[in-house]
Amino acid sequence: MSISVPVPVQRFREEYRAEHIGPRYRGWAHFAFTSLGSLAIIAISIAMIRELRVIELVTVPAAFLFANLAEYLGHRGPMHHRRRGLGLIHRRHTLQHHRFYTREAMLCESTRDFQMILFPPVMLLFFLGGVATPVALLLYWLSTANVALLFTATAMGYFLTYEVLHLGYHLGDRSWLGRLPFMAHLRRHHMLHHDPALMTVCNFNITFPICDRIFGTSHRGAS
What's the angle, vertex CA 83, arms to CA 81 and CA 85, rounded to 5? Predict the structure, then answer.
């Protein structure tokens, strides 16, 4: 299927592929690693839960909202504004992802372009070790092991949801995922964020625009 891509975007894509995407890269293998790794952590966390109390289930919606806020703040902050020590994040997102995919050229041309959509595989380990585990240990110290495990399972589930939805946006309605009814709204929300004039001011939630609504940064575009 032919995809119309503006010349400047096509030029950047070709240069990026030549410099950053190795010949052995496989997009679906990348996605499988992220998915299976996340699902394994979720399964292990749930399997370790013992004598669950109903009140501990509050952890699931609380962790979901915490993850939504973290997604929002991370995207609105260092992903679009250079911060000391986080320059790599800014470069990959603002200077690369937003030039590879623009409002006029949101669709990937092949599975090799998944490399510019999905987090690098090492980010799964970083997210688990640098974010989920420290928070889970704090929750274990403050409450119970079940709360810590539920938080870990929910956080990793959110991470996987982020990857699946983001990939779906850039696959468009060529995939079964992109054709799901709710995806059209979420994909438009993300597409508007890819407008250079809007990317630093609105639509920072990549999954569900909860915090965008709370903080008044949700933009629906012209009706």
Answer: 145
What are the residue ranges spanned by the domains of the chain? 31-48+55-214
Complete DSSP assignment for the chain: ------HHHHHHHHHHHHHHS-TT--HHHHHHHHHHHHHHHHHHHHHT--S--GGGGGHHHHHHHHHHHHHHHHHHTTTTS--TT-HHHHIIIIIIIHHHSBTTB-S-SSGGGGGGTSPPTHHHHHIIIIIIHHHHHHHHHHS-HHHHHHHHHHHHHHHHHHHHHHHHHHHGGGSTTTTSHHHHHHHHHHHHHTSTTTTTTS---SS-THHHHHTT-------
Residue 192 near residue 202 (C-beta atoms within 8 A):
yes
Check if the beta carbon of residue 163 is closer than 8 Å to that of residue 118.
yes
DSSP assignments along 98-138, one per residue? HHHSBTTB-S-SSGGGGGGTSPPTHHHHHIIIIIIHHHHHH
pLDDT (tens digit, 9 = 90+) per residue, 153-206? Answer: 999 999 999 999 999 999 998 888 888 888 999 999 999 999 999 999 999 999
* Number of residues that this document lists for the chain: 223
